[in-house]
């Protein structure tokens, strides 16, 4: 079995990302969706409507994010946005963009008027020289800058996204200083993930000995300037006192399943020894092949608790850039209602409600500290289950008795909790809530037709 890092699936819960199409008028040298542009169409409107309608009926996602290549180029974007606004029950509508089209104030106003309230703008250089070289489009820095100014003027949420490569690694502090006057809600820094050039033929991967000090400098400057920051895919131990800014979660993406086949895998030689091994991904396999394991550069924090293979990905709430964190995970009233009153009646607490597209997990904890997870999966009829309700297969896992507690009575109490919870869920499940076990949500229709291969 591969380690957890090797199985990493980039799924953040409560946020839904939809790929409208894969065209772009920039040509960033690191673009990780170039392969996507060649292979994948966006999500069809019908499939999108279905996902939005599902959310309208059984809310799981608080935000929908539109992306692709450059989504602001797509004429049909506003059709998607309108439908999401009217039917999806989302709190926020976000676009991920290179910002160039937002330089046109009338267009920016149109986007905001249709309900887009968050703009996640790619900015990969602190000046035109670096940004235009990276995007291979002269003027792209100036356009993105005007676009970001327009977003601010319109009162929408502005966030920036910077992909860390050899092209900008030495000027990250300058980038923070450049962006600071715009007061973005957050600056994100995503380490480059090779998805086409696994051998790093483009020479974009930054050696960790260089990236670590550069990132720490940029994060320190952001801190001094009062800017929030977030980092993805950088080893946590390289971030020093800013390790808590690492967040490797990603939205749930409506995209073709095959897209994840090209997603790189991760590993760290210190995985079993490091306290942060569950939240930190370590290094990508292409990086390790090129630079080695960086044994001396990565510094594990000695574990104080035994390493446990994580069962699921991270359970986090919906992104909340204005408050610098996430919504509480437990705020899912329709799902919480399935077990309402169970914990109180049995003298335990419902400690967590973890919901994603595939699974709903309730965690109950006794006063002595023992716990059990009750999981709801989509009803299948052909796998073992503790019970089946109209919509779900129910199962339990991770029954853990607290040290020093009376094991027999703790088990008896948790068994009673499970029994009552199953009864309640069976009675209350009227088939209105849904789970979906597929990863990508769209099938073969999302692939572009490839030209026929000519016989030699
Ligand atoms: S030692 Fe490995 S797992 Fe621990 S923080 Fe560093 S890269 Fe991450």
Spell out the blueprint of helices and strands:
Layout: E1 12-21, H1 34-39, H2 45-57, E2 63-68, H3 77-87, E3 92-97, H4 105-113, E4 118-122, H5 128-135, H6 140-153, E5 157-164, H7 172-179, E6 186-191, H8 208-224, E7 229-232, E8 251-256, E9 266-267, E10 283-284, H9 285-291, E11 319-320, E12 325-326, H10 333-336, H11 342-346, E13 349-355, E14 359-365, E15 371-378, E16 387-388, E17 392-400, H12 407-428, E18 441-442
Parallel strand pairs: 1-2, 1-8, 2-3, 3-4, 4-5, 5-6, 6-7, 8-18
Antiparallel strand pairs: 9-10, 11-12, 13-14, 14-15, 15-17, 16-17
Notes on the protein architecture:
With 456 residues, the chain is an alpha/beta fold. It folds into two domains: 5-320, TIM Barrel (Alpha-Beta Barrel); 330-428, no CATH class. The chain is built from twelve helices and 18 strands. The chain has helices at 34-39, 45-57, 77-87, 105-113, 128-135, 140-153, 172-179, 208-224, 285-291, 333-336, 342-346, 407-428; strands at residues 12-21, 63-68, 92-97, 118-122, 157-164, 186-191, 229-232, 251-256, 266-267, 283-284, 319-320, 325-326, 349-355, 359-365, 371-378, 387-388, 392-400, 441-442. The strands form four sheets. It has a nine-stranded parallel beta sheet with strand order 7-6-5-4-3-2-1-8-18. Helix 2 (45-57) packs parallel to helix 3 (77-87) and helix 7 (172-179) runs parallel beside helix 8 (208-224). The two termini are 42 Å apart. Mean pLDDT is 85; it is low at 1-10 and 440-448. Iron/sulfur cluster is lined by residues 235-237, 268, 270-271, 274, 276-277, 280, 282, 298, 300.
């Amino acid at each position: 079995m591969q380690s957890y890092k090797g199985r990493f699936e980039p799924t953040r819960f409560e946020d839904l990302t939809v790929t409208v199409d894969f065209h772009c008028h920039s040509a960033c040298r690191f673009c990780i969706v170039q392969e996507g542009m060649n292979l994948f169409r966006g999500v069809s409107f019908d499939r999108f409507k279905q996902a939005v309608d599902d959310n309208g009926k059984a809310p799981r996602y608080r935000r929908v994010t539109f992306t692709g290549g450059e989504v602001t180029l797509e004429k049909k974007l506003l059709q998607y946005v309108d439908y999401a606004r009217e039917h999806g029950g989302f709190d926020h509508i976000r676009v991920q963009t290179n910002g160039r089209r937002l330089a046109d104030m009338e267009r920016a106003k149109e986007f905001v008027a249709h309900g887009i309230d968050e703009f996640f703008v790619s900015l990969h250089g602190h000046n035109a020289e670096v940004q235009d070289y990276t995007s291979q489009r002269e003027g792209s820095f100036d356009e993105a800058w005007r676009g970001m100014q327009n977003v601010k003027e319109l009162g929408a949420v502005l966030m920036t996204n910077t992909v860390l490569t050899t092209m900008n690694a030495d000027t990250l502090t300058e980038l923070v200083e450049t962006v600071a006057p715009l007061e973005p809600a957050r600056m994100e820094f995503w380490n480059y993930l090779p998805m086409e050039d696994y051998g790093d033929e483009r020479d974009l991967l930054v050696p960790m000995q260089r990236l670590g000090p550069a990132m720490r400098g940029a994060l320190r400057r952001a801190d001094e300037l009062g800017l929030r920051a977030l980092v993805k895919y950088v080893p946590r131990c390289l971030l020093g006192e800013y390790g808590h800014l690492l967040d490797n979660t990603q939205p749930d993406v409506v995209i073709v399943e095959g897209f994840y086949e090209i997603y790189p895998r991760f590993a760290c030689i210190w995985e079993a020894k490091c306290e942060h091994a569950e939240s930190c991904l370590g290094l990508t396999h292409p990086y390790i092949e090129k630079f080695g394991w960086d044994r001396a550069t990565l510094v594990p924090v000695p574990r104080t608790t035994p390493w446990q293979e994580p069962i699921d990905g991270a359970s986090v709430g919906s992104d909340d850039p204005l408050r610098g964190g996430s919504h509480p995970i437990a705020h899912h009233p329709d799902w919480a209602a399935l077990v309402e009153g169970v914990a109180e009646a049995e003298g335990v607490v419902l400690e967590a409600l973890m919901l994603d597209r595939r699974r709903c997990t309730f965690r109950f904890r006794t006063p002595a500290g023992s716990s059990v997870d009750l999981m709801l999966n989509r009803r299948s009829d052909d796998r073992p289950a503790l019970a089946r309700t109209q919509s779900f297969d129910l199962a339990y896992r991770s029954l853990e008795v607290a040290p020093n507690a009376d094991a027999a009575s703790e088990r008896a109490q948790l068994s009673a909790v499970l029994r009552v919870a199953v009864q309640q869920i069976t009675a209350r499940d009227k088939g209105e809530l849904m789970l979906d076990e597929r990863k990508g949500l769209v099938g073969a229709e999302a692939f572009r037709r490839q030209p026929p291969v000519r016989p030699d």
